[in-house]
Design goal:
This protein has about 325 residues and is α/β, with parallel strands linked by helices. It is about 35% helix and about 20% strand. The strands form 2 sheets. A 9-stranded mixed β-sheet has the order 3-4-2-5-1-6-7-8-13, sandwiched between helices. A 4-stranded parallel β-sheet has the order 10-9-11-12, sandwiched between helices.
Length: about 325
């Protein structure tokens, strides 16, 4: 019954992109996006791209729409000042690695960042946003194919499937693909590699930025694919005694957190969540819950950095 709605969604997306007149803000624009509804690892890849540009001496800024936040005007994120209710959880993650902006209007946000000295702008989740002229468009794909998982489902567009748009339409606007694997995955499925034709492919792994805390832990996550957190903790050797999944961007209720704290007390365990979820906690709960950060690590970091630098130099 959802198929007709998916046809309308796909047609509306294609029409919006085709009719747009992208604006050039005067600096290179690197877009990091995906083709599915959540769960591909865009934000860790965005943060790593910013880090690699900084490493090369380039003043790169991040730009996000600020999903889940109340602020709409161009705003530079300050992790000491703003909360997830202000700017969203993912911009707070990006701000730990460098200057980051949120703006409901991406063009206004890009101009504000350029005026503040940004030499390059890295957009988080912007593949279906056509308002800015992109120098480099990267599509991030969840590379997990074990246990019959497949990043594109049956290929259907939302709401009858996981796709934001048809696969080939989205790939036609991409310059390269980043396949993001779990830390313990054996390698990229050859069938998945074939889906991208002649597009350049860069493989990265989502690895813990630190070991899980010692001793028993009770973990919870409110991301698009929370089971991946449970699997990652097990793979990292955590003594995981309980795990609670929540919807993506969940606003944790006091009663939920008290229940989890009671479970942790019962097992003499620590409460642990993802970095993204930790930013959505109140200051009081942040003192009681440990954050377990992860990062995207490229198998050929030099090649990925060279791709980013070519985009920068193509504008100079």
């Amino acid at each position: 019954m959802l198929k007709p709605l998916s046809w309308i969604w796909a047609a509306a997306t294609a029409r919006r992109i085709a009719r747009a007149e992208p604006v050039d803000p005067g600096i290179p624009i690197i877009s990091v996006g995906n083709l599915t509804v959540g769960g591909s690892g865009k934000t860790p890849v965005t943060r790593e791209a910013i880090r690699l540009l900084h490493e090369a001496g380039i003043n790169a800024h991040g730009l996000s729409r600020g999903y889940g936040g109340s602020l709409r005007a161009p705003t530079q994120v300050d992790a000491a000042l703003h909360t997830a209710a202000d700017v969203g959880d993912e911009p707070l993650m990006l701000a730990l690695g460098g200057p980051t902006w949120i703006a409901h209007d991406r063009v206004a946000g890009a101009r504000a960042a350029a005026a503040a000295g940004a030499q390059v702008l890295v957009l988080d989740d912007a593949h279906q946003n056509p308002t800015l002229k992109k120098t480099l468009s990267l599509v991030v794909v969840d590379g997990e194919t074990r246990d019959d998982e497949w990043p594109f489902g049956d290929g259907s567009v939302f709401p009858s499937g996981p796709m934001r748009e048809k696969l080939q339409r989205g790939l036609a606007r991409a310059d390269a693909v980043v396949i993001l694997l779990p830390a313990d995955a054996p390698g990229v499925d050859p069938r998945l590699m074939q889906a991208f034709g002649a597009l350049p492919i860069h493989v990265a792994r989502l690895k813990p930025a630190a070991p899980p805390p010692p001793g028993p832990i009770v973990a919870f996550a409110g991301i698009a694919k929370p089971w991946k957190v449970e699997r990652a903790l097990d793979a990292a050797g955590a003594e995981l005694v309980d795990f609670a999944p929540f919807p993506d961007h969940a606003a944790f209720r006091e009663e939920d957190l008290r229940f989890l704290a009671d479970r942790a007390d019962r097992y003499h365990a620590r409460l642990v969540t993802t970095e993204k979820d930790w930013f959505r906690l109140t200051p009081e709960w942040r003192t009681r819950v440990l954050s377990w950060p992860v990062k995207a690590t490229f198998e050929d970091e030099a090649a990925f950095q060279a791709l980013l630098l070519r985009a920068v130099t193509s504008r100079t």
